Each structure stands twice: as C-alpha cells, then as structure tokens.
Amino acid sequence: MNLSAVLILAAIAVAGTALSAPDEKAVVSLEAGIPETLVRNSVTVELIKDGPRQGLQVRYGVTDWPNVTFRPVIGVWDWSGWTGIAVDILNPEGEAQAVSMRVDNAGADGVTACNQLGGAVKAGEWTTFRLRFNKGGDKGLWGMRGLPVTGPTGGGAVLELSEITAFQVFLAKPTREHTLILRNFRLYGKGDASAQVKYPFVDRFGQYRNAEWPGKLHSETELRQRLAGEGAELKAAPRPADRDGYGGWASGPKRRATGWFRTEKVDGRWWLVTPEGRLFFSNGVDCVGPGEYTFIDGRDRWFEWLPEDTGPYGQFIARQEGVHSMAEAIGGKGRTFSFYCANLMRKHGSDWRKEWEKTSAARLRAWGFNTVANWSDWDLMSRARIPFTASGGVSGTSRRIEGGGGYWAKMVDVFDPGFPAAAEEGLSAVAKRYAKDPFCIGYFGDNEISWDAVERGPLASPPDQPCRVAQVDALKAKYGSLEKLNAAWGASAVSWDALRAPESPNAACRKDLDDFIHAFAVRYFEVCKAVFRKHAPNQLYLGCRFAWAPRPAVRACAEVADVVSFNIYQGAVNGADFTGANDLGKPIVIGEFHFGALDRGMFHEGLGPRTSQQERADAYLTYVRSVADCPSFVGCHWFQYIDEPLTGRWFDGENYNIGLVDVTDTPYPELIAAARKAHAEVYARHSKAK
Questions:
Q1: In terms of Cα–Cα distance, which of 71, 195, 211, 320 is closest to 602?
Q2: CB 126: neighbour CB atoms within 10 A?
Q3: What share of the chain is helix, strand, coil (3-state, %, to 5)?
C-alpha cells in the first residue's frame, strides 16, 4: 500500500529520536537513554547510540507474548485527534518477522480496552509500522478493517484517546528468540482518513482504482483471455501424481476400507483414511463459493460504477441485516453487491454459475487441494466429487452465559434444559443432508465459540443461571460449607450467591475452575456428538474449531470427538507445544490459517501479515510443512478461496488479502505455485513425521 508522503518521517535521527513532521508528534524519547518507565516482559534491551542501527535493540524471548511496554511518566497520555501511532523497526534477521503493537486504556487485557495490530517487518531494512486507532469508525470511511492510504485499523475496542495508559511492541508466541531495533515512536495523522482519499477509489471490477500492480485487470477482454490461458494450464496439470479418486495416497499403505472416512494411527502417526482404505492428509480450502458481498448503501462516491437494480448485474444486489459490527453508519442493514459474481458473469456469460463450479473444482484438484472445507457452497460440495467437511452451529433459544463475554456471541449454557433441543435444531439439518455421501469427511459443530467465558462467566452470572447452579452445587458437594471453600480458595465470599472467581486463583481454586470447565465441555461435546451420530452415524465428528482453547476444554473434546480442531493463525505449528497436541490421543485438523500482503491493491493483510505475495507463498509452504511434520495432525484448511471485498464483507468489515484468487477470479501465481509444491510432498513428509 502506498502511504501518503506527509506520513513519512524525515530521516534526521539523533540517538534514536527524530525530528517530527508537522502532522507527527514524538511520544517516547531515547535521547536521555532507556526510559525509566519502560517495562520489560521476557525481553532484554540495549540502546544503540550510533550508526545506521541506532535505536532500542530488543531481544525477544521464547514465551507467549514477549514485549516492551512504554508508559507515561505521569498519569495518562492524551492522544485525542491523532490517527494512530507509528514506530520505525529494523529487522536484522534474514527473513521477514511478524510483529505486533498494542495500545491500552485502563483495564486492558489483550482483548478489552485496547487496540492491537500485527504486521510483517521486512528482513534487513527499516520498516515503518503503523497502528491506526479504532475511533469507532471514520465519518467518510466505514465498514472496513483496513482503509486506503492509512491502512489497517487496530483491532479491539473503541479507544478513549484522552486516557492512554500504555503501548507495547510484542511478538505473538515466537518459537525462537528474535531481535528487533525500535526507534521514532510517534503519533501520526490529523483528521479523518477519508480526507486523504481520492474518490472514487473502487473500479468497476471491485479493485482499488488509485494504484497499479502486477496482475491488475483493466478490461473484460483481458478477463476472457485469462480464462482461456488458465483452461489450457489446468488441462496440462490436472492433479498431483500418486492420488486416488478421493485425493488419498494411492501408493501408500493400504488400510481397511469401510466405505466412509475414518481415522487411524499408523506407525505412531495419525491419518484420515479414505472410504477405499487409502491414507489421507486433508489439504483444504474454506469458503469455496461465489459471493463475498459488500455494502453499497451510503457509499455512492466510493465506486466508479454500480449496477442498476433492473440491469443484468442487478441479480447480484441483495439486502442484508444482522450485522456483527462496523455498519453502524447505515443502521446495520442495507443493500450489498458482489463484484466477484459480476466478474464471473463477465467472464463466463449467463451460465457463469455452472462454469464457476467446473473451474473451481478443476483448480482445487490441479493445485493439490483434496478437501472443500468449511462454509463452502453446498451445491459445489454435493457435485464436485471432492472430499468435504460440513458444519452447523447450536441455535435455538437455549440460554447463554450472561456473565461471560464473547467476540462472536456469548457462550451457550450447556446446563440449560433447552440446550439439547438447541443442538438438535442447529446441527441436524446439515447432518441429514450429507449422511449418505461418502465424500463427506465429517462435521464441525460451531466455530470459535467463547470457551474463555467458561472460566469466570458462570460465577459472574445471576444466581439462577443454570451453569452457575451446577458449578455451585459441585462446590457445595466438595467443600460442604462456604467457610471451607473460602479457606481453600483464599476467598471472602459472604454468600454462595456472592461467590466469584478470584482475579488470581490459587492452586486449589485453579483446580476447581478447571474441573468445571472440563465438566462443562464434556457435556457440550457429548450432546453435539449425539446429534451427529443420530443423523449421520458413519461420518466423523470434527470438534468445534477452537480459537480460544482452555486445556480442560481441549482435553474434553479429545475424550469425545473423533478429531480435535483448531484455527491456528501462526507462522508455523509445533504440535509438541500447542496445548499438548501430541498427547491428546486423537488426531487434529486445523480449520483455518492464512497469510496476506498489501502489494496487490488490498488494504489489510489479515491475521498472518507478510510483506509481499512471494513471502505470502513462502509462508504457506512453511506452514503446511510444519503441520505435516507433526504426527498428530491430519490436515490444514486455508481460509479462504476468494479475497474478501476491498470495501469489507458486509458482516463485519473484514477486507483481507487472503484469497487463492482475487476479486476478478484471477489466481495468485506465487501462492498457487507454493500450494502445488507443498501438496505434492505432503504424504511422504507426514509418513516420516516424528
């Protein structure tokens, strides 16, 4: 992304500080040495005073969140009116490094009362890292996680900019030590981001209008030329060698054939096994479907072209409501449009839907993908003859944990009498639909649900909350009296109704909380599994796609489900370190991962930031290899098939460069080449995993 020249700091550095441009303001000075208010968390620091590497050198240790945290000398910082905070970072290592920044209000815990943003820092050169504050939206630009010119917004709460308590530069769960050099900590930008944008900024194909890059589409003629060229390429390389009809390992060890997918541990390594008895490692893609709608109401001047309601592209206009976030400017509902579908019609004509299915299935096979994964088009899954996973979610009127939080929604209360009916209502339809299809590997139940709310949420809920009642009953049975519980926990509750989970639980309390999380999770997984077994007895129960993963809940899933599933947005996977993966006694599948960059006209890299399409491709190869090297993992699924809309998906404003193909249905060649390479070697690699 091209940043406005007025945001580039003049290179006049003295002992790690710099002269600020008119729209910048220094917030931390290194002139007098390392600030006394700096807090070190699993890092060592050194001030380099001279030469091209002058700045604060930070050596990050191997732990979950090593960081350097900066605090004001007195009180709080008032950053009102500024767009964001920037820091110059030198990465002296030989490869790009993922780095994160966080800005806090009082009470920040990494989830609430803070903003944080991850990004990629190039190897061997200085990079300016910017976190744009979440101010609750921009008057002119709304509904997008990343914006033109000013880039990605820090995820998290709307900040109170007059009461900033700290900011930090951290690494997310590094697997080895890393060194960075930091300098020029400053605020940047005055006024709304919309004032810096040239309108319209979206062309008729849904691309960024105000920049050029390799592969940008300029005409419909070019679109059809690409179609012809890709068709010839797919015919020349239809799929990797040594694959059976399910994408399994054709020359690998033959196992028992049951007519359905199953799991088996072979020579100390977990595998999926195809209906014909071949070993199977699931390389999948999420969200394989035509769609990706973005709001068009309230945004007229953003687009150089929009369809007429009654014209040929009017069929791709829809109305949406029930927005999760970031559409407050239009009351959370309005008209949406799919530029991707319009481009498919331009490319294939009136029979675009059928041609899209045929092309997409051919692509996946040729690129070495053998699984159509979560949230994909149901018709494609039924017709493509490629193994697939399906999913449902607990719905209905079952009560939620009132005292617990949750990003997508509050956690369902599994002790509510209505929970089994809610599970039946939400999970049965998809199980019935695919119960007789041997290409269906199995079913996920729910996604990224709020397991973190189960630790403290029940005791923070009203006295009649069913899960609270169950937890208190268990504690009464164990301790007999509130006095004995208070003594064991080091608590001072005056009544059972007033009992809360302590902020810093001692060992006895920690065990009791973990025991309840486990009991809660066992009930959740058993009820969900019962629904799937009732309606689809031959297929696998694939768990709940953990994003927040308390160990007791993971252990419960392993006890009940056929496969444990995680969404893991990291640079690589180490099964020995990730929640005891190799000790769970069940196979594991990764339901989501991705990497993105800003060099092809997009505004946000997503959750796995990289600096270029080639680095994005290299990251894919590294990740898949790391999964294949873990004996407990049986696959990983890329999120997602198509880039999210440039102006944000309607549901929550995500506009990430995370597709195998862009909005014009053009594949990213670097990423596809990496996928082909990774998938061609995956069976031989996993068979040697240790």
A1: 211
A2: 17
A3: 30, 25, 50
Q: Which residues pair with 132 in a beta bridge?
A: 84, 153
Distance CA 199, CA 637 (A): 37
d(CA 104, CA 338): 37
Same structural domain, 122 and 247: no
What are the CA-CA distances from residue 197 to residues 4, 151, 320, 432 (Å)?
A: 10, 12, 27, 50
Question: Any alpha helices (H) in 490-601, and if so which ranges?
Answer: 507-535, 551-560
The tokens describing 211, both together, are: 């920049």
Kindly state the percentage of the chain with pLDDT values over 90. 79
**CA 592, CA 558: separation in Å to the nearest integer?**
19
**In what helix (H) or strand (E) does residue 628 lie, and over which residues does it extend?**
helix 613-628
Closest by CA to 605, choosing from 568, 655, 663, 651, is 655
Q: Is residue 176 domain-shared with residue 44, that is, in the same domain?
A: yes
pLDDT digits (tens, 9 = 90+) for 549-606: 899 999 999 999 999 999 999 888 875 455 456 679 999 999 999 999 999 999 999 9
pLDDT in the model for residue 162: 97
> What span, in angstroms and rounded, lies between the C-alpha atoms of 342 and 664?
9
Hey, CA dihedral for 211, 213, 217, 219, is it positive or negative?
Answer: positive
Give the model's pLDDT for residue 193.
73
Q: Which residues of 466-502 are buried (b: 16+ CB within 10 A; e: fewer)?
A: bbbebbbeebeeebeebeebeebbebebeebeebebb
Count other Cβ atoms within 10 Å, centred on residue 162. 12
Give residue 471's Cα distance to chain centre: 32
Distance, in Å, from the CA atom of 27 to the CA atom of 6, rounded to the nearest integer, reads 18
Residues 128 and 21 in one domain: yes
Q: Record the tokens describing residue 98, joined without a space.
A: 């993922």
Q: What does DSSP assign to residue 217?
A: -
Q: Residue 314 gets which letter from DSSP?
A: G
Tokens representing 652 are 């929550």
CA angle 185, 187, 188 (to 5 degrees): 120
First to last CA, the chain: 41
182 and 313 fall within a common domain: no
190 and 51 both lie in a single domain: yes
In the chain, the amino acid numbered 153 is T
Low-confidence stretches of the chain (pLDDT < 70) are 1-22, 137-138, 575-582
- Give the CATH number for residue 173: 2.60.120.430
Q: Domain limits at 141? A: 5-196
The two counts, helices (H) then strands (E), for the chain are: 12, 30
* pLDDT tens column, 465-490: 999 999 999 999 999 999 999 999 99
